[in-house]
Amino acid sequence: MALLTSNYTIGTRVRITQQIPRMRGVWTSSVEGVIVNIEQAKTGSWFAHSKDDRLWLDRLELRLDDGELVVCNLDQYSRIETVDEPVTE
After folding, report:
1. Are 60 and 37 in contact (CB under 8 A)?
2. N or C end: fewer C-beta atoms under 10 angstroms in the chain?
């Protein structure tokens, strides 16, 4: 899979919305923060028979406004949007 995050750079503020399909409807979750790391990283899954016999996922690490770090594993149900910086007074 091509890196989904190739159009984004570290320091960009983004909102990631991910959807998980279920039997009845879709579960949706969103997180917003500043990108601190972008990478493709391998998982412990062996069945993919890809590079190094591992499944590789696009990962995007965000720093939320409260300082929490969140790692998002991206897939075809993930949407990334660039957002403006929050207004601070």
Report:
1. yes
2. C
